[in-house]
Amino acid sequence: MLVNIDSYIPTDIKDVIFNSATEKQKIMDIVKGVMPFPFAGKNGILLYGLWGTGKTTLAQLLPDAIERVKGGVDSDYHLHKCVQGANGAVMMNKIITQAEFISMTYSGYHYFVIDEVDNLTEAAMASLKSAMNMPNTIFIITTNHIDKVERGVINRCEEIEFNAAPAEDWLPLANRILKDMKIKGVSDAALIEVIASCKGSARDILNSVVKVGVTRSRTSKRMNVIY
Q1: Out of 3.30.430.20, 3.40.50.150, 3.40.50.300, 3.40.50.880, which CATH number does the structure's domain 18-161 have?
Q2: How far apart are CA 104 and CA 108, in angstroms?
Q3: pTM, rounded to two decimals
Q4: Phi-psi region of 136 (alpha: psi -120 to 50; beta: other; left: phi over 0)
Q5: Please, which pLDDT band fits residue 120 given cuts at 50, 70 and 90?
């Protein structure tokens, strides 16, 4: 039985697989309001780490999660993807314009998700730093290369490392996928080996687990024919 991979993409922060309990606690403290945010000039959350670990997925879950705790329901966040080679000027002007409007959220905050911020030019990065000074704004930023992010931007953010999670932490999801495929007999040890080979890429892990299920199903059918 084949499955829809998209159905396993997290729709709630509790479903996100973090690389460490420490980084997860940082996020949960912000979301639950244990850690005041925005606070002391920090109004950004910077998610940094390897490709494919789920930074963008988490980034898009955070605005609604934060807004709900503040009393609202929908964050109505603005998503901006930084494209390689683009100077980012148009995007930054759009962000500044959006921030000048009165927010329709319960909290009064504007939420901006800036994906792959390291693709911005030096000038656009400087504009982002200035935009982050605007009142009632919250920025969720992702990058694969934190060393390419302007220090002023980093200084305005809570930094969250989002690298490869331990292979064992993926086992519940991997076993759930195989169960949905009606596949039995795949050991945790075998799954851990497959997951570890994906080096933290959520995309590769999901696809590899499904391939394990397909291969197992094909083998079982052959055995049924033989016997």
Answers
A1: 3.40.50.300
A2: 7
A3: 0.90
A4: left
A5: very high
